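Recap from last week: sequence in, structure out.
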Amino acid sequence: MQCFKIKKSKLFSICVSIILILIYKNLVEKQNDLHIECVISVSFLIATLFLLYIRYRKITGGMLFYICILIMHTGQIILTAFNLDFSSSLKSSIAISDIIPYSFEAIKITTILCLVIASTICIFENIEDLQKKNELIFPKIEIKLTKLGWCIITIVIVLTVISDLVRIKQVANVGYAYGYHQNNTILYYADFLFPLCYFLVITVYRNDWRMIRSVFFLVAIRDLYCAFLIGSRGEAVLDIIMCVFAISKTTTSTKIKNNIKCIFILSCIAGFLALPFTGLFRADKSLSFITFLKDNNPLVYSLTEFGGSIVNVRLALQNQFSLPISDFWTSFLSIVPMSTKILPNILNNYGGSYVNYLNIGFGGGLGGSVLGEAIFWFGEKSGALVYIFIYTLLVVLCMNKLRQDEKSSSLINNTVLLFLLYEMFYQIRGSISSFQSGLKILIYFWILMTAFKKYIFLNKNINDYKKGLKK
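Predicted structure tokens:
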């Protein structure tokens, strides 16, 4: 009977999702007024977010992913719907006046793909698991990192610092955009290995508040100079979001969970105030924060700038058939370790065509986007829908798996899942080529940790450990 109820609820979700998408398409099919189209789109998106919250009664991992998608792709649509003026200082860099007023198709496709993401979350995020006790049950084994494990983490941190210093020097000498050039392969990998290592530490020391604070401090320090000196604000935001998510999904301590909630709320408030300012500050070093607040509405400014990812949707609609679909599929074969030694060179020479074509070769600027790349590679119809459906399904399944993973011996798998989620969140404003590189690093990491697990991790029986302390 319980099984029937679950299936019935999912069938109901599918029916509601299809009806919403069909109603939206019919309403905007012959719409020529930009403001009315934006109002309709925002109404459907807000209603969908409300329905998701009603279903789960809390902000789930899938909903967090959906909220990030909305901020990155519909910020300007929301402002247009509410007749809020865009900040004039952004128009020169993002060309807002040339993008939104003539992008009826981009608005429609973006909204439909967002509805597909919400539908996938609603159908596959297990509400039954969320209703269970929100604490993971671990066997009575204490796991610590050995000296070898800490040596590996230290090396990664050192490489990351060197990588960032190189980027800071490039930005200082040439400009913001050139801070994304990484000619050294080791330094390029360091950018991926850094979040991988702090996810590992969080997973191992999930109930040690002192260690968690140390990790947060380390991440925050890097985020500060990434945001202000390098200009990589998206990376800084993502680090905080995923760090909070990792702790909330692995810790069993109520105190740590409450502290993390406070940190997350404060970070969100600071983010909407400070992140827009960094964009202007890197262009004008004499600008003060007080002046910025007097001349700009931080919320409007943030939605305008981060919502600029809709630019990629428009460009993808214009140029979706410029590259053969086969390039996309064959490129993923190079994720397999040592594949570059086996596969023909033609299958390994991937990544430049898409990035260069959209004029984002330096890795920043307009960035990429999940929605834009889905359209570019597979078209705006069934292909894009399938791509987004599979992508969102992977996110939700990873989150469910992480919640159900109750064995402390599987901390390596926990770390792998957390990093995979990190990469997926990053691709909201990233690129498929970066995602491909991250997956390759993830495979090497998993092989290394699995092969040398007993040398990297130290297991102790908690009861014996406590007895030893009493003696």
